[in-house]
Amino acid sequence: MGRFLDESDFMMVEEGFTTRDLLENLLLEVSQMGDRDAFFLADLGDVVKKHLRFLKVLPRVKPFYAVKCNGSKGVVQTLAELGTGFSCTSKAEIALVQSTGVPPDKIICTGPCKPVSQIKYAAGCGVQLMTFDNEVELGKVARSHPRARMILQLASDNSRSSTCLSMKFGATLKSCRHLMETAKDMSVEIVGVSFHVRSGSIDPQTFTQSIADARLVFEMGTELGYKMHFLDIGGGFPGTEVSKARFEETAAVINSALDFYFPEGCGVEVIAELGRYYVTSAFTLAVSIATKKEVSLDQPGSDDEDSGSRKSFMYYVNDGVYGSFSHIIFDNVCPIPILHKKPSPDHPMYSSSLWGPTGDDLDRITDGLELPELQSGDWMMFENMGAYSISASSTFRISQQPQINYAMSRVAWKAVQLLQGKLLQPEEEERESICTPLSCGWEMTDTLCVAPVFAPASIT
Ligand SMILES: *Cc1c(COP(=O)(O)O)cnc(C)c1O
């Protein structure tokens, strides 16, 4: 039994089975019941795996979870159980995290322009850490939350990032001194610096530059009499399995920049705000076809002999861009379905497109697919659907959101308990027996076999 998550919160996947088997079973069940609603399968064990990988690769950085990325209860519970902190951008997110039982000293309130009601709410809950990047924000905080401990958010050079929104957020290096002097006049406390390299930035050196900038701002703050001891390196780390190498490469660059600018023992607590990294690969969405339309591809005037096969299909499925696929617009991704019924290789293929249920022109999930002819009622799956598909506020509008089925392997569940010290540090000779079940393909067995490296991320 965990404090935040226990075995009744998810389906236990026993050894010899995979979450994929579980998904097949669920699909069989819904097909038999004639059920047609889209649903998620969330592999919480995958979240655990990401956590262990993070601790191993960035040992000096305490992970915080950016709730805006996926506000599902199971993810929040799992990460609370693992001892991460949480970063929240709204009242609903703070409420969700607090209702799970997370204490306020593990919550940061982020977002560049917070409504006063949110600042007051944070103050009322005892959440002290907040980010800011402008004077207006400081004024609001001085009036509504005098005990806040502020983190100055720096703009980071994201000119190479694929979604070039970066310049909207963060103070420039030039404006920092003025902002900190203003804070001093208002008696607002500043404790550190944050930055956020937006995902899609292919250059890990952006982190080196941002960490170097943060060092300068630490020095300015110290000169002004602030006790600077908190560095938040943001998120943006990729969350698919294929990007693991890129993550590790970025981590190596971060580690050396930290060692250079914030060497171990300098008294600075380093955190990251991870969103997509934790959840992307954990969620698979299953949708079914509600309607199909046949479209003739023949151009007027062209007389193609084999026009017989020149047809294409539009499939309308039961979730779309206004629902779980909203992230495809700003992340510029092209989701690829996995068909539930495996087609035989000699089936003719047709150009096909997938559409959400609204009938709106913008509600296009993907097109240009080559698929065999499908029927309404057929199911398909989309992997890597965990990031920016489920928000905390829509958790309260359950009817509009696909149901989430949570699962975790027995191995991962043991790892959770081991990490928390629930399985007490085994004696030398017992160690092997405890590590055995954890070694089935888990690259981080070595992490698990040593004393828990992880001190829960509370802020001092
Ligand atoms: C959204 C956000 C994150 C998380 O971003 P991911 O790309 O999902 O990791 C981290 N930090 C800040 C400031 C954010 O706004």
UniProtKB/TrEMBL annotation:
Keywords: Cell projection, Cytoplasm, Cytoplasmic vesicle, Golgi apparatus, Membrane, Nucleus, Polyamine biosynthesis, Pyridoxal phosphate, Transport, Ubl conjugation
Entry GO MF terms: carboxy-lyase activity; ornithine decarboxylase activator activity
Cellular component terms (Gene Ontology): axon; cis-Golgi network; cytosol; dendrite; endoplasmic reticulum-Golgi intermediate compartment membrane; granular vesicle; mitochondrion; nucleus
A biological-process GO annotation: positive regulation of polyamine transmembrane transport
Xref: PROSITE patterns: ODR_DC_2_1 (PS00878)
Main location: other
Recorded superkingdom: Eukaryota
Location(s), subcellular: Cell projection, Axon; Cell projection, Dendrite; Cytoplasm, Perinuclear region; Cytoplasmic granule
InterPro entries: Ala_racemase/Decarboxylase_C, De-COase2_N, De-COase2_pyr-phos_BS, Orn/DAP/Arg_de-COase, Orn_de-COase, PLP-binding_barrel
Domain annotation Orn/DAP/Arg decarboxylase 2 N-terminal: ranges: 44-279
Subunit structure: Monomer. Interacts with OAZ1, OAZ2 and OAZ3; this interaction disrupts the interaction between the antizyme and ODC1. Does not form a heterodimer with ODC1.
Primary role: Antizyme inhibitor (AZI) protein that positively regulates ornithine decarboxylase (ODC) activity and polyamine uptake. AZI is an enzymatically inactive ODC homolog that counteracts the negative effect of ODC antizymes (AZs) OAZ1, OAZ2 and OAZ3 on ODC activity by competing with ODC for antizyme-binding. Inhibits antizyme-dependent ODC degradation and releases ODC monomers from their inactive complex with antizymes, leading to formation of the catalytically active ODC homodimer and restoring polyamine production.
Family from the record: Belongs to the Orn/Lys/Arg decarboxylase class-II family. ODC antizyme inhibitor subfamily.
Protein name per UniProt: Antizyme inhibitor 2
